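S.,

Sequence below, as promised.
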Amino acid sequence: MTAPADRDGLVRRLRVLEDKEALRCLLVRGWRALDRKDWATWAECWAEDAVLEFGPWGEIRGREAIREQVEEAEAPFPSMQHHILNTHFEVEGDRATGIGYMWFVAVTGNGAASAPYSMGGPYDWEFHRAPDGGWRLARQRLGVWWTAGEGTGPETALQADPFR
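The prediction came back faster than expected:
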């Protein structure tokens, strides 16, 4: 028979594993919505008072402001793929942090034979548990370490990255 202390530890470890999987699913759901330009689903992944830090844009505050900025920036791309790689999450109660890498690829014109635009760099996330029990993005920092292909002019040039 399992001792109560062992059961409590098992329950805690299981809860952390479930939370880590919920965080991964939140990001996959949100970033697949980005690829489909499903802005409502993507915005649901963010807390109302969320903050997005992205070098070229500075700091953007609030779910709606973040949605508007990203929607405008991605409007020129007929199709996109947002890849989230090498993720790691730490969960402490109703708060969590995460890190990962971004690899973004976008077609710059329908049927274009030229190289797609792409960029990559590190993600740094903060999450909190919402009143409904689900997780929401509270803060995202995104650094750009490289860009390639069309659309890599001065406005998308490599940014100095504070967490490199």
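The helical segments are 4-36, 39-44, 63-74.

Coffee later?
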